[in-house]
Amino acid sequence: MVRQPKYVVIVNALQQRIEDGTYPQGAMLPSETELVREFKASRPVVVRALDLLRQDGWIDSHQGKGRFVLGIPRQEQRRGRERNYAVLDTVESADSQLLAAGVVPAPPRAASALRLETGTPVVARRRLVLVDELGPIELGTAYLPTDLAEGTGVGSSEPLGEGLLRHLTARKGAQFDHVSEQISARLPAGDEASLLQVRPRDPLLTVLLSVCDRTGTPLLAVDVLLPASRHELEDVYPLG
């Protein structure tokens, strides 16, 4: 059994207590020190869990006073991903090319994101996304465990009529909660330079996504390549 990250355990426990009324609206949450002691976690882990709850609208914080329960947030109040990737969200249409679909041995990056052994059979779907004025902007491959892909169109060469996440939710009842995102950079390899229409020495941004359910279990992995010259990643986050 895969152990959940400690911050996910804390988030789930506090959400459950808010939902069942243990911590009613307006109640003050236990202090960071009390949560550190209860969950046997480090203070940074507790702070991360509390910040996720704040971003999702479950709690609010008041400097010098503590953190207070707001209640169960409406779905539209919950935080969204800072960035969207076409391989996850957009319909496969004329502005994209499906390059491959089917069962493959899990490469090391995908296996790591899915917490599988390298070489485990998975279903992969590789897609190139183009924009008229820019050309190719994204080369993405989604990797799914075979049991999740079974009964869906992910392994088929036919275009999906909806985004990948929506397709898996409709076909399998998958419930996606959050994404772990790792961003790095490297030079093109294999056919990547020709597909993305870049020079062999042009840098690519690489994004590895692990898409998880509420328990922190990874349901699918997505390996995305972005030409650095056609993308600018921006994020905003609080200090303190």
Task: Characterize the structure shown.
The radius of gyration is 20 Å and the shape is elongated. It is α+β, with helices and mostly antiparallel strands. Strand 4 (121-131) and strand 5 (135-145) form a beta hairpin. The protein is built from 8 helices and 8 strands; from the N terminus they run H-H-H-E-E-H-E-H-E-E-H-H-E-H-E-E. The strands form 2 sheets. Strands 3-4-5-8-7-6 form a 6-stranded antiparallel beta sheet. Strands 1-2 form a two-stranded antiparallel sheet. 27% of the residues lie in helices and 28% in strands. The longest helix is centred in the first third of the chain and has 14 residues, at 6-19. The two termini are 36 Å apart.
List keywords for this structure.
single chain, 240 residues, two-stranded antiparallel sheet, 8 strands, 28% strand, elongated
Helical/strand content category: alpha+beta
**Rg on CA atoms, Å:** 20 Å
Distance between the termini: 36 Å
Q: How many beta-strand segments?
A: 8
Q: How much beta, percentage-wise?
A: 25-35%
The percent of residues in helical segments reads: 25-40%
- Note the overall shape: elongated
Summarize the biggest pleated sheet: 6 strands, antiparallel
Task: Describe the oligomeric state of these chains in a short phrase.
Answer: single chain
